Amino acid sequence: AQKVTQAQTEISVVEKEDVTLDCVYETRDTTYYLFWYKQPPSGELVFLIRRNSFDEQNEISGRYSWNFQKSTSSFNFTITASQVVDSAVYFCALSSKTGANNLFFGTGTRLTVIP
Amino acid sequence: SAVISQKPSRDICQRGTSLTIQCQVDSQVTMMFWYRQQPGQSLTLIATANQGSEATYESGFVIDKFPISRPNLTFSTLTVSNMSPEDSSIYLCSVIRDYYNEQFFGPGTRLTVL
Asked: What value does the mean pLDDT take over residues B23-40?
């Protein structure tokens, strides 16, 4: 069975602080994909990153970085020097079948960046 | 990425009526999905829309309640039938363009049932 846990329901930080959003996943598949999505107040889901299970390299994109560790089944997301525009709900998701399939979403973490 | 549009963007409906939501993609895609996001909740997959055949429904969702069509590789509809207030949710269409598994979402349809 696939499962994604985002233990942090809500986080508040002051602007310019760094913040890490945690994601822990469970799957029995050896091939799987992990995702992060951002859902701002407008409601649209914005794709941030996809990671496959064979690539444990950490990734950095501007102020965003992701730490994938198979040993702990975690795929954490860090925002450096947070900004008010980062305020949103962030979802971690898992897809466990190659050839594309449905996403199992975590419950999301609501991030509020206080100016 | 893919440009995905949904119609309507929002609607308020009466109990017992049905609403059809459209999802249009700017180019052919491999797979299309429909998700539901209940207020304050995460996303749950309703079904995979299969081109030219019946949709594949997830546990807890049935065709009589959520009929889905996908007549071609760029378009799909989801109907929410015989609505009740519990159906009040955001309904999102998503697509996968290729087998790299990057799934992109439409802007969603915010449905309120009175």
From this structure: 92
